[in-house]
Amino acid sequence: MIDFFLNIFSTMFQMNMRDHHEIPFAMPLLMACLVGGLIGFTIVRFVVKEQLEDTERAKETAVH
């Protein structure tokens, strides 16, 4: 499993992630950007879904 992820990151960053001399100083920052992007995308997705549900409820109460 570790080899699978190292292969993905090696391809993505165009460097050999198995060699500790090639890993740049900013690698934790890059990983944080990836994780933060995924978390942000998930949060925004739920907020939009909740807003759509609130809009539908407001339309239903306005009709009745």
Q: What number of structural domains do the residues give? A: 1
Shape: rod-shaped
Major beta-sheet overview: none
Please give the alpha-carbon distance between the first and last residues: 56 Å
| Count of separate DSSP helical elements | 2
Mean pLDDT: 81
- Low-confidence residue ranges: none
Instruction: Write down how many β-strands occur, each being a DSSP E stretch of 2 or more residues.
Output: 0
Q: How would you classify the helix and strand content by structural class?
A: mainly alpha
Rounded to an integer, what's the Rg over CA atoms? 21 Å
Return the string of H and E elements. Answer: HH
Helical residue percent band: over 70%
Share of β-strand residues: under 5%
Could you describe the 3D structure shown?
This protein has 2 helices and no strands. It is mainly α. It has one domain (2-63). The longest helix has 37 residues, at 27-63. It is rod-shaped, with a radius of gyration of 21 Å. The mean pLDDT is 81.
Keyphrases for this structure?
single chain; 64 residues; mainly alpha; 0% strand
